[in-house]
Amino acid sequence: MNIMLFHSIYGLRPAVREAADRLRAAGHEVWTPDLFEGRTFDTVEEGMEYRGEIGKDELLKRAVLAAAPYSECGLVYAGFSLGASVAQTLALGDDKARGLLLLHGTSDIAPNAQAEDLPVQLHVAEPDPFETDDWLSAWYLQMGRTGADVEVYRYAGAGHLYTDPELPDYDAEAAEATWRVALGFLDGLENA
Question: pTM (2 decimals)?
Answer without folding.
Answer: 0.97
